[in-house]
Design goal:
single chain, alpha/beta, 16% strand, globular, binds 1,3-dihydroxyacetonephosphate
């Protein structure tokens, strides 16, 4: 059985004090044993978050990383620096990074491989725009994104990869994909993984849905057979995020 995982993506939000207050509350009120939990936080709060979460089962995540190990890359952060802070998960290729920072499937692939070498779990984000969906090309696009992200990823490491389906039209819009729409794409992603690595490995890979997930819709999304959790933006900034996490366990 795959363990569910709920990941909060704070994006460019939270001071150290805000982070400490929210996570202290989450740590005290969350009540799960079969679900993994992580927060992908800004670099500036990582050390604070690490201290608050010490000896809890909530893990630290990053929203990005650079693929090169070190050197003249002003403003960037390496895998080794993340390891130093005990980061366990790292988002890769979030649609906002693809849109505003010109990340490509090729840079996503480099980052995935660099993270796996360091035993940090990459959370690869894929998803289509509303126009692509209306044109009926979304599944082909997602096939390309998944295949390119996983190019040359060793079978030894593949089960550490998490894939998050985040349709762009559902991110920050309040419009959630229906559970059937999300399930259709998540099961398609599992099928693509099966094509590359075989059916049994595909059954062990965790595939998440993200896009306007909140305490009201989480339970239904989590009931779908191929949705193994959620990547949550806006709702992860509030105390009610605890309800999203607890819904994964029901
Ligand atoms: P929202 O939950 O705010 O729609 O954001 C989703 C997201 O981008 C998570 O990575």
């Amino acid at each position: 059985m795959r363990r569910k995982i709920v990941i909060g993506n704070w994006k460019m939000n939270m001071t150290r004090m805000e982070a400490k207050n929210l996570l202290t509350l989450v740590k005290e009120s969350v009540n799960v044993s079969q679900t993994d939990i992580a927060f992908a936080v800004p670099y500036t709060v990582m050390e604070t978050v690490q201290k608050v979460l010490a000896e809890s089962n909530i893990m630290l995540g990053s929203q990005n990383v650079h693929s090169e190990p070190r050197g003249a890359y002003t403003g960037e952060i390496s895998v080794e620096m993340l390891k130093d802070l005990e980061v366990k998960y790292c988002l890769v290729g979030h649609s906002e990074r693809r849109k505003y920072f010109l990340e490509t499937d090729e840079t996503v692939n480099k980052k995935v491989k660099a993270l796996l070498e360091a035993n940090i779990k990459p959370v690869v984000c894929v998803g289509e725009t509303i126009t692509q969906r209306e044109q009926g090309i979304h599944l082909e696009l997602i096939r390309t994104q998944v295949k390119k992200a996983l190019a040359d990823v060793d079978i030894m490491h593949i089960e550490d990869v998490i894939i998050a389906y985040e349709p762009l039209w559902a991110i920050g819009t309040g419009v959630t994909a229906t559970s059937d729409e999300a399930e259709e794409v998540c099961s398609f992603i599992r099928y693509i993984v099966a094509e590359i690595y075989g059916v049994s490995i595909s059954q062990n890979i965790r595939i998440l849905y993200g896009g306007s997930v909140n305490e009201n819709n989480a339970k239904e999304l989590f009931s779908m057979p191929n949705i193994d959790g959620a990547l949550v933006g806006g709702a992860s900034l509030k105390p009610t995020f605890v309800e999203v996490i607890n819904a994964a366990e029901e």
